[in-house]
Amino acid sequence: MVNRTTITIHTRQRTVVRPLSDASLVRCQHCQTDVLGATSDCAANILEVSTTAMRTFIESGMVHLTTASFGARLVCCNSLFNLSTQQDEEV
Ligand SMILES: [Zn+2]
């Protein structure tokens, strides 16, 4: 007679959605499309990294920097999403 053991695993996942108060629609030259642009401080908050780490991401080209029509330098949220996806896959 064969004994069988059933193992059930329950997992949880929490998704936090935050409003982007410092975001505007801008044209990203790298993505060649209109994207949501966020200030570098807001982008750092989105990725939960320091402003120094965000500056490194921008300088290395890991995230795109765009210029809004009103002159502000904003981070392309498409590149933020791609970077966060890459980080999730590396974990
Ligand atoms: Zn972009």
Descriptive report:
- The chain is an alpha+beta fold.
- It has a single domain, classed as Multidrug-efflux Transporter Regulator, Chain: A, Domain 2 (Orthogonal Bundle).
- It has helices at residues 40-47, 51-60, 77-90; strands at residues 23-28, 33-38, 65-67, 73-76.
- A hairpin with a 4-residue loop joins strand 1 (23-28) and strand 2 (33-38).
- The protein is elongated and about 75 Å long.
- The N and C termini lie far apart (42 Å).
- The mean pLDDT is 88.
- Bound molecules: zinc ion.
- The site of zinc ion has 8 residues, from helix 3.
Features of the shown structure:
single chain, Multidrug-efflux Transporter Regulator, Chain: A, Domain 2, binds zinc ion, 91 residues, 4 strands, alpha+beta
User: Roughly how much helix do the residues carry, as a percent range?
Assistant: 25-40%
Derived from helix and strand composition plus strand pairing, the structural class reads alpha+beta
Low-pLDDT runs of 5+ residues are: none
Per CATH, which architecture? Orthogonal Bundle
Q: Tell me, what is the CATH class?
A: Mainly Alpha
Q: How many domain modules?
A: 1
Distance between the termini: 42 Å
Number of helices: 3
What is the H/E order? EEHHEEH
What average pLDDT do the residues reach?
A: 88
CA-atom Rg in angstroms = 19 Å
CATH topology: Multidrug-efflux Transporter Regulator, Chain: A, Domain 2
Per the principal axes of the C-alpha atoms, what is the gross shape? elongated
* Major beta sheet, strand line-up: 1-2-4-3
Hey, roughly how much beta strand do the residues contain?
Answer: 15-25%
| Structure summary, number of beta strands | 4
